[in-house]
Amino acid sequence: MKKHIVVLAIIALLFSMFQVPAVAAKPQSDTIHSGSPFDNKIIKRFDSKRAMQHISYLSEDIGPRVTGTDQEKEAARYIQQQMERYGYDVSTQEFDIANRMQGQLVTSMDDNELAIRIATGSSSTTEEGVSGAIYHAGLGEPGDFSEEVVGNIALIQRGGLSFWEKVEHATEAGAAGVIIYDNADGLVPPTPSLGDNTASIPVVAITQADGEALLEEIEGSEVTATIKISEITNQKSQNVIAVKKPKGKPSDNHDIVYVTAHYDSVPYAPGANDNASGTSVVLELARIMKGYPTDKEVRFVFFGAEEIGLVGSRYYVSQLSDNELARSTANFNLDMVGTNWEEATAMFVNVVDGAPNLVWQSANDAAERLGNDSLILFERGASDHVAFYEAGIDAANFIRREPETAALEPWYHTPFDTIDKISQDRIQEAGELIGSAIYDFVRKETPRGKKGQGVNKRVGNYLLNEEPVRNR
């Protein structure tokens, strides 16, 4: 009997050791990742800490990267050096940009330089600029001026009259320059338009807050200002291009996929989200994918001069040969993917005509595999994917927005677009999601989309990524 009991006990012990539990003991994580080995090649290697280092260098070490400036060129060199470090052969593509006006407004209040926008139609100044006491001229009506404005700087509130009428009245009264301050709260100054008119004096605009601060100062004492405006000519910008060739395919017979981002920013804006964020994710994806075999050629292209009218991307696409265009399959364009603005919970996939295409398909499939429900298909141009669409290439722009109104974060195009407004978690999410879509697309043969939908035509009057010019 005892032997029988011992045998039964041993059998029970062995059974308990090898029994499969009813509930798996696998630990759960906050992020649902795909079991696909192809996705995991991206997910397990994408390092948002590296991406944040790129954002830090571009937005903090360099700062505003205005088209055509030394800072934009420094950013291009940084991108080139990083890509060469990853093992790519890198080329730069230089192109001309339109002449532009640059300016400065300094007041005697602790030699304070104010953020400005130069009016279209403003005159330039000498190198020394135009200086004078600030004279408050109300809304710029003829009766708002006295002899005290002669040879001085007229401070005029926006509203009531057109910008040109205000400037015309100030000029007739003898003012040496005009500062227009906004009549509504905003983080950046308005951009005044003088219509088809050209002023004989310099005209700039400032924010409501800066205008009201000047008003307080001139009530108690004289405050002087110096306006300097000069035209910058014969400037150039550049695209940075790195190519990953497919293995085992003839060099002239494979599809081409473009992974792109712009690296320039607007004046005064460090451009952490717009668009060091997209640039950083593309850099990190390029690092990861360098050693992976692909069936398609992948071109990582970093555009300059996006903020002045998508100039870099339009130039790049215009230089593609007919053979290259025929083999071009898709453009994944990343722009402003890292904001920590709480309301920006959705990743918009902007398509120029609003129709699903291969890029949307790939991203949506990746989102389903990764359990990510943040994607929204949206009809919009306004970024570098437009040039590819117009050439008949399936293209989409990835950008974080508020889902109900499609609003961007409040510090868009302002000096407050800084690295403290970046979410490292959202950078990681963008890298994993978009990277998985791209890698799945290029690692195997993907059915071609319907070509020629946008060849040689412009679609609509899409708002460019800069503040609209207003005449009132």
Description of the molecule:
The chain has about 475 residues and is an alpha/beta fold. The protein folds into 2 domains: about 35-100 and about 235-440, 3-Layer(aba) Sandwich (Aminopeptidase), CATH 3.40.630; about 100-230, Glucose Oxidase, domain 1, CATH 3.50.30.30. It is built from 12 helices and 16 strands. It has helices at about 1-20, 35-45, 50-60, 70-85, 165-175, 210-220, 270-290, 310-320, 320-325, 360-370, 385-390, 425-440, and strands spanning about 90-95, 100-105, 110-115, 115-120, 130-135, 155, 175-180, 205, 225-230, 235-245, 255-260, 295-305, 330-335, 345-350, 375-380, 395-400. An 8-stranded mixed sheet has the order 1-10-12-11-13-16-14-15, sandwiched between helices. Strand 6, helix 5 and strand 7 (about 175-180) form a beta-alpha-beta unit. Helix 2 packs antiparallel against helix 12 (about 425-440), helix 7 packs across helix 12 and helix 10 crosses helix 12 (about 425-440).
Give a brief description.
The protein is α/β, with parallel strands linked by helices and 472 residues long.
What Rg, in angstroms, do the CA atoms define?
28 Å
Main sheet overview: 8 strands, mixed
User: What is the string of helix and strand elements?
Assistant: HHHHEEEEEEHEEHEEEHEHHEEHEHEH
Q: If helices are DSSP runs of H or I spanning 4 or more residues, what is the number of helices?
A: 12
The rounded distance between the terminal residues' Cα atoms is 104 Å
What is the second-level CATH architecture of the largest domain?
3-Layer(aba) Sandwich
